[in-house]
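Q: I have 723 residues here and want to know how they pack in 3D. Can you give me a structure?
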Amino acid sequence: MVSRRQLLKLSALGTATFAAPLAYSASNITMTHKNGSPLGSPSLKDADDNARSLDLLVCGDSPTYMDRRGVQRRSWAGMEGEFSAEQVARKKQFDVFLNSSGFEAPIPYVAGIELIRITQTVTYDKNDYRAKSEALPFTTSDWEADVSKFVLMGDDSLRQQLADHTNPNNGVGMLAFPRTSVAAAASSASRILSALRVNIWEDQFVALITDKPTKDPGTWDWTPAFEAASVYVKNCGGGIVELTEGVFSLTRIYRRNGVSIECRGSAATYLQALPFNPGNGPYGLIEQEDGPVIGSHIRGVHLLGLPASNPDQWGMYLHAKWDEAYQHGGLWMSVHDDVRITYFNKGIWSRGGYTVAHYKRPQQFLDFRSVYVQVLTGGEALRMTGQHGQVNFTLGSAEGRDGNIALRAATLSFDPDPSSTADNASCSGESTNDISGTGNAVQAPINMTFGAKFSIQKSQEGIYSQGAKNIIISGIWGENIGKFLTIVNNSHVELEKSHLAKAADGGVLGSPGEGYLFSCQSNSTLVLRNDNDITGLTDSVTDPAMSVNNIAGIDMQLTYFNGDTTGKFKVSGYKSVGVDDDGRVVLGGHKFVIVSENDDQTILLRTVNANAAPGEQVMLRANSGPITLSVGGNIFLGGMSAVTVPQFGIVVLVRKFEVDSSGEWDLVSVPEHYGVDVPTNGYYASGTRIWRSDSASEDFIGVICTASGLAGSTAVFKIFSIV
C-alpha cells in the first residue's frame, strides 16, 4: 500500500519521470508499522498491519505468523498440516480397532455373494445390511428372496425401522412394553398403555402358544393364551380380555369372576372349536369356573362348532359349582350381547343347583340380548335346568340353522341328572342321598322371559317347560314348528303379543296333522293373554292327547286366528275333582271341572277352593250323578238352603267382590232336570223339579222333591198336579 507521503514525493518529480515509482510499490514494502496500538484502533497504519497479517495467515506457507501486536498465530497452512497429521493418526487407530473387531467393509449387493461370517456386510439402496446369524451360511440370489435374511445396520437403519409402518416387526413393534397395574396418574407412555384393555395378542400371552400347525394364527391353539390373559385380569381385580377380529381356535375356556370377554363383533371375531373331549360328562367351548361368577359379560363374538369331532360339545356349558367354602356358586349379573352360536349340535346349557332346599347355586340376573343360537338337525338350542331366576332372552333366536330342523328350541326343566352334580361336603341338601325323588324336591327355573322380538323357528318342538314357573312369553316370533309349547309338572306360563305362523305344523315332525300349539298337563297352567296373532298351518290349537283340561285363564278376545278354528280345540277329557269328606272341591287354577260325588252321598258340596279373582266364574259339571250344593261353607244360594245339579248338568258360580257372612261364591245358574222316571239314585234337595215324559199323553209331566234325601229312600217326589 502507498502512503500519502510517498505519493507527495512522486508528484514532486514531475510527469516526465512518473514511471519511476514502480520501484517503490506496495508489494516491496515488507516492514509493518508496529504501532502497538490497543484493540479497536482506528489508525490506518494498524489497518494496514492487519491486512498484511491476514494475507499471510491465509496465503502464506509458514505454519505460523506474528500479528501486529507480536503474537504468533497459526496459519491456514499450519492448521491443514496439523489436521492431516492427526487424521493419519486417527486412521491408524481405527484400522487397529476394525482389525481387532473383525470388521469388513460393505460391498454392493449382487447375486452370487457367499456369506459365511457375521461380519460380512452388503450395501443395497444406500443402506448397509448384515446377515442374520440364523440365516448363515447362504449365497445371495435375489433381493426380494433374500431381504428376510438381512438386518439393517447402524442408527440410520434403526431410525428407518422405527419409521416403518408397513412391517409389523418394525415401528412400535420394536418397542418393549411391560404391562403394570395402574395405581397412580399415568405420567408415562407405559402407564397409558397399561391402562388399556388386556389384549390376547400381547407377547406374554402369545408366547404361551405351542401348538402352531401353520403360520396362520387361525390354526393355532389359543387356549393357553386366553386362559393366561383371563387369569391375569382376574388377579388384577377384574376387567376385560379383548380379542381382535380374526379366528381364534380353542379347546375349552372358562368365564371367571369379574372378567369379561370383549370382541370386535359376531361378524368379525370367531372362536373356532378344536377337536376336544374331556371324557367326564357334559362340556362346552365356554364354561364357567367354580364359585360365584359375577359380571362376566360376553360381547361381539361368533362361536363355531366342530360337530364331526365334538358331537356332544355345547357352545356354552354354564354349570354352577360351589366355591371352596361351599357357600355359593353360579353365574350372576352377566350380559351376553351380539353373540352367535352355529355349527353345534347343542347351543347353551345353563345348569343351576337342583334342589329347593336352598338357593345358593343359582344362575340369576342374566341377560341374553341379540344371542342367536342356530343348531344342526336334531340339536337342542337352549337348555335351562335347576335354579334360575331373573333371566331374559330378547332380540335373538333359538332355531335350526338354515335348512336344519332342531329337535327343541328351548328346554326349561329340572336337572336331568342330579346324581352327577350332587356332593357330600356342602351340607346344603345336595348330597348323594338328596337327588331327584329322594330327600328334597327338585328345582326348575322361575321368572324367565322370552320377549322383545325373540324368535323360535325351524324346530320340532318350540318351548318345553317342566316345573318352571312365572315364565313370560311376550312379543316373540314363532314359525315352522311342530309343537310350539308343552308345559308339564306344575309349570306356569303366560303368552301374549306374539306372532305364531305355522307353529303347529306336524309336517315339521314328519307326521302331518299331528302338530299343536299348546299342551298343558300335570297341574300346569297356561294363561293365553291378548294380542296373539296365530296364522298359517295349525293342525290343532290344543294337544289332542291331553288327558285333562289344564289350560287356565284363557283370554282370547283379542287373539286373532287367521283361519277356521273349527275342530282345532281338542282334548280327551276335563279336569276331574271329587267332593271330599268336608264337602269341599279344590279347583286350583282351573275354571271348568268335572265333579264326582262323594261315596257317602249324604255329604253335600259346601265349599269351593279355586284360584279365581273376584268377578271370575267357575263351572262345575256333575258327572257320576247329581251333585247337591248346600250352605254352611262359602257358597251363597240366594236364600235357598240347598240346590241339586242334575247328572251331566253344569252349575255356574261367580266369586264375589266383597266377602261377607253369606260366603265367597254366588250361584249364577243351575240347569233344570229332565228324565223319564222318578230318580232312584243320588241326593236331592227339597224343591228340585224334574220334568219327565208321559208316553200315554205324549206330554211332559213334572215331579218335585218335597222332602230332601236319597232318591229311592228318604227323598219324596210328587207329581205337580198332586201338589
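Q: Anything worth noting?
A: The longest helix spans residues 76-101. DSSP finds nine helices and 49 strands in the chain.
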